[in-house]
Design goal:
The protein has four helices and six strands, in the order αββββααββα. The chain has 198 residues and is an alpha+beta fold. It has one domain.
């Protein structure tokens, strides 16, 4: 994982959490790198990008991509109900018939909750949206046919325990959306998730 270190003199709690995250190891078919955190969200912030089997370094993957931002504010903003807030994003392509499943959004959200619980990452004050899109190509894009995509945006406040478990949960969610469940390192992407278009 490449590093883009936060500003000078981080608080001890923030520095300890970031150090633990930098020590994480991710599965071989997920490339994770540090990116600049969006400014103005909190006094201290740290961000990562993840891509499932990207074609080139620093390029978004056609199989699945995501971002996670760790926000820290010792003043404990009221909506956070604590000093930490985590903001995450994950998206992946799907087969069109899966994109029309009325339960797809519920399943995507349940995968996030399951990933947090499987990693022992306690949380509260969770919120988010799951968006599914269906597309049809016309004209010069007609040959691409129909496509679908699932996108999950979520935020939550960590409870007691290490912050790095939340990053592990996010990485698990990203792989799940891309069709790679836990323990499937090195296997072919699973159907019915859509392969990238030519």
């Amino acid at each position: 994982m490449t590093e883009d270190r936060p500003g000078p003199h981080p608080s001890a709690e923030f520095a300890l959490a970031v150090s633990a995250v930098r020590e994480l190891s991710f599965r071989g078919d997920l490339v994770v790198r540090e990116i600049g955190a969006p400014p103005g969200l909190a006094p201290e912030a740290f961000a990562l990008a993840g891509d499932v089997r990207p074609p080139e370094a620093h390029e978004d993957s056609p199989y699945g991509t995501g971002r996670i931002v760790l926000l820290h504010d010792p003043a404990q903003p009221e909506p956070w109900n604590g000093p930490w807030r985590i903001v995450s994003f994950a998206q992946a392509p799907l087969e069109p018939e899966i994109g029309t499943d009325p339960l797809l959004a519920d399943v995507a959200w349940s995968w996030l909750i399951d990933a947090l619980e499987s990693r022992g990452a306690s949380y509260h004050s969770a919120s988010g949206t799951a968006t599914k899109t269906i597309s049809t190509g016309f004209g010069g894009l007609a040959a691409e046919g129909d496509g679908a995509q699932i996108e999950l945006r979520a935020s939550w406040s960590p409870g007691p325990g290490p912050i790095d478990t939340h990053v592990e949960a996010w990485s698990e969610l990203l792989c799940m959306l891309a069709g790679l469940p836990p323990g499937s390192e090195g296997i072919t992407l699973l159907t019915p998730f859509r392969s990238p278009r030519d």
